[in-house]
Amino acid sequence: MSLSLVLSDILHLSLLSCILLCESEALKEARQSVRKFPDGFQFGTATASYQVEGGWDADGKSPSIWDHLTHNDPCSTDDCKNGDIAADSYNLYKRDVEMMRELGLDFYRFSLSWTRILPTSFPDKINEAGVQYYNNLINEMLKYNIQPLVTLFHWDLPQKLQEMGGWTNPHIVDWFSDYARVAFELFGDRVKNWITINEPSAVCFHGYGSVTLAPMLNIQGVAEYMCAKNLLVAHAKAYHIYDKEFRPTQGGTIGLTHNAFWYEPETENDVELAEAVRQFEWGQYAHPIFSKTGDFPPVMKEKIAAKSAAQGFKRTRLPEFTSEEVEMVRGSSDFFGLNAYTTFLVYKNESLEGYYDVPSFYDDYEALTYQPTHWSGAASVWLKDVPWGFYNLLTKIREDYDNPPVFILENGYSTRGGLDDDDRITYIRSHLNALLDAIEEGSDIQKYTVWSLMDNFEWTRGYTERFGLYEVDYESPQRTRTPRKSAFVYKEIVRSRALDPHYEPDTTVMTIDEGH
Ligand code: GBH
Question: What is the 170 CA–ligand 1 centroid distance (Å)?
Fold first, then answer.
């Protein structure tokens, strides 16, 4: 090892320890005392249609890509199970709303199943039974003053549209925006917060450039970028339809929600690389909407163009936006929707040369990421409890994008089940502390959402990972829901509008407080 390397390591270590020490000195005290949330701050929980509803073919619903995947390849999930019944929210929505009341929530985030409302995928035929289900749910919530926050698309694409290329087909801009218009018409009198699309990077990378989510296309380095462009334009078109045709009378807000991990450089040598990784991973979708210039991040455009040329492609594998599209996408979100879970370290070493033998997203960004084994973590392998990463992420969003309003639309922790979930409580508290730190520094964070209200179908993990504040008993026909300890702690946070690190709940009986 050369002398300069050793020196830089020492410098790095001392910097790091200063950061850690400084943080512990400055923040320890605050974290020992009760911290208040700002006036108007709102608390919620979230779920998604395929993960909780069940009723996969009930009353005229047609199949989505998740019905198709789990029926055609049953062991595409770890436990060979599917979402045919899931938590049966299609039938148990009243109990779901009762849980929201127990927690005292301000809002509940759920998603619409496209094929439940439009079984042909198109607006030629509206399925009244599907509409009735969502009307029942929304009206039941509003009875108790719980605001619906509705996601139009949380991954359950109509199978028919997938057969026509799904998000790689530019016609999806019309397919999606027609569907969005139907939803605004049907529910917009009562729904004032809309999310167009949940986690673009999960849809495009995991669905089209990998095998981790349906449709598991795995056409690397090509399909995920086609998806990205079409998805952003489809989102923007839906945004403008709402803005022009519905906002004047309905007066709500609309945006999309990003899945952003924090990427920390392993050493000072990796600072630039970590920034490139952030731009590839979520700047890909945030830069076109929130930057002053719009369009994909410059570092992405440059790297992919250079790689593509060297690989013998006739043009860059990253589709280009027209200037009209750049303008259409730029600014097409009333808030920065953020699903934030965890942190990775970024590094590069020489062994990366020749590491990937085909063009791919990871080859394009030329870095490796990992999580140190000593970071404590959840049942999900990718999910470590790293609150300082959440703080860094919030700070970067504030600094890079001119302090937009931020809605945290997912944050949560998985276990293997059981009611005593102290790890989940630790995680939620540590992340709310980091969020309060960011607010104190000036971040405009307005909402916080726990993923999830209850256990649900965790995609390719099936039911093996549990994210719920409420446990769901999948063995019981009633899908009995029981509050975990974390439900009692979250209830107290929502009630007191404060974080008390010493609060110990009485978990013997869950009640509904007056006014809920
Ligand atoms: C969210 O995604 C989803 O919006 C939600 O539906 C889900 O239930 C929740 O998280 C918990 O997972 O298989 O190791 O390659 C969070 C981002 C992107 C994290 C896909 C897991 C796959 C990891 N997710 N990723 S892996």
Answer: 26
